[in-house]
Amino acid sequence: MAIQVLIVDDHAVVRQGLKMFLTLDSEIEIIGEATDGKQALELARQLKPDVVLMDLLMPVMDGIQAITILKQTMPDIEVIALTSVLEDQSVVSAIRAGAIGYLLKDTESDELIRAIKAASQGQVQLSPKAAARLMREVRAPESPEVLTERETEVLRLLAKGKSNKEIAYDLTISEPTVKTHVSSILGKLGVSSRTQAALHAARIGLVDNVSL
């Protein structure tokens, strides 16, 4: 089954451009387009996409607000934030809000397609520059609760860019068990997304860097 994607951007030319090359991939299906965060939430509730490509600077409701509400109410939907500039503080806010990653709007089409496919599997996707910036900006709690040995193993694999299915295979446990461990890890670290958990893993030296 194709990965169902919702495109959210207030510029028609951007939506058209994204749609044009994404539909060339048979594994991706564009199921809707929204022009602002409010409309994005309405369509997400109706259409239940696998991945949302979310612009950040929009009228009515911006992307940060929309990501926050979407992840609180529909946590299974993954969000990739789109932005025009790497240094934009909005990017950091988007990751805090729960986006699994972000891309610049000048990203090559094959890279965007790769990121969408990875996000649909719950895999963290960050460019090295983005990861370096986010590690400085996104702070984990000073004294997070101690993770169990198994949770630490799951966090290490998560930070290496592995999906729940791959983690389950590597650790010889079920996928639902992996999901339970991930939820526990997020709770103990006091973070709202796999991306933040992965950045924490890199910060404490659990992995050398966050995998692309």
Describe the structure.
The chain is of the alpha/beta class. It folds into 2 domains: 118 residues, 3-Layer(aba) Sandwich (Rossmann fold); 67 residues, Winged helix-like DNA-binding domain superfamily/Winged helix DNA-binding domain (Arc Repressor Mutant, subunit A), CATH 1.10.10. The chain is 51% helix and 13% strand. It is built from 10 helices and 5 strands. A 5-stranded parallel sheet has the order 2-1-3-4-5, sandwiched between helices. Strand 1, helix 1 and strand 2 form a beta-alpha-beta unit. Helix 2 packs parallel to helix 3 and helix 7 crosses helix 10.
Please supply descriptive tags for the structure shown above.
single chain, 212 residues, alpha/beta, Rossmann fold, Arc Repressor Mutant, subunit A, five-stranded parallel sheet, 10 helices, 51% helix
* Rough outline: globular
CATH class of the largest domain: Alpha Beta
Find the structural class using helix and strand composition: alpha/beta
Which range does the strand content fall in? Answer: 5-15%
Give a brief description.
The chain is α/β, with parallel strands linked by helices and 212 residues long. It contains ten helices and five strands, in the order βαβαβαβαβαααααα. It has helices spanning 12-22, 37-47, 63-73, 89-97, 109-120, 128-137, 149-159, 164-171, 175-189, 194-203; strands at residues 3-8, 28-34, 51-55, 78-83, 101-104.
